Amino acid sequence: MDQKIFEGIQDIEQELGNLSSAQKILLATDGSVTTILDVLKGHVNIRTLVQEFRKADAETAFLLDVDEGATINYRVVVIEGKEPLIYAISLIPVERLDDDFREDLIRADIPIGRILRKHNIESRREIKTVSLEESDPEMVDIFKTNSPMLTRTYNIIHKDQVLVWLMETFPCDLFTD
């Protein structure tokens, strides 16, 4: 595990107390979160809250290493089983997608990990940050808790380029067993 991610988890534990193994795995994995959730909670699904094309602003262009104004697929989803499990935002530069991948993405309710697997896309994940965030009204509404949120950001890299930037968030009172 990258040292900064290990230190980030230690910082969170200094503030909250010990995290469960499942919480640490969800924060640090460089594999498919969807697969981990399927194992922990049974088959999970995606509920799409927002799916739209946007022009990359300066921050998004920096995150994705694209030109400002490039077309980006912006998607906000809740991964859920019997209850909401993870809130996720993804930014995807459309120019880096083939037509079939783009079609599956636009259908909205397919997890990115499953789309990658379906299209046999070889990729790797680079975890960028792990952090503890205060719950905001949207998170309270989705998760029905005002618990602090565990958050991570990461890139899915394909052909040495950022294919997807993701932020995943879940309440620290989830996955405690």
Describe this structure in words.
- This protein is of the alpha+beta class and 177 residues long.
- Helices cover 34% and strands 35% of the residues.
- It is built from seven helices and six strands; from the N terminus they run αααβαββααβαββ.
- A six-stranded antiparallel β-sheet has the order 1-2-3-6-5-4, with helices on both faces.
- The longest helix has 14 residues, at 3-16.
- 27% of the residues are buried.
How many alpha or pi helices? 7
Q: Order of helices and strands, N to C? A: HHHEHEEHHEHEE
Principal-axes shape call: globular
- Overall residue-averaged pLDDT value: 90
Structural class: alpha+beta
Multimerization status: single chain
CA-atom Rg in angstroms: 16 Å
- Biggest sheet layout: 6 strands, antiparallel
Low-confidence stretches: none
What is the straight-line distance between the termini? 23 Å
Q: Beta-strand percentage?
A: 35-45%
Strand order of the largest sheet: 1-2-3-6-5-4
* Percent range of helical residues: 25-40%
Offer a concise description of the structure.
The chain has helices at 3-16, 21-28, 33-41, 58-64, 99-106, 112-118, 137-143, and strands at 45-55, 71-80, 84-93, 124-133, 149-158, 161-171. By secondary structure, the chain is α+β, with helices and mostly antiparallel strands.
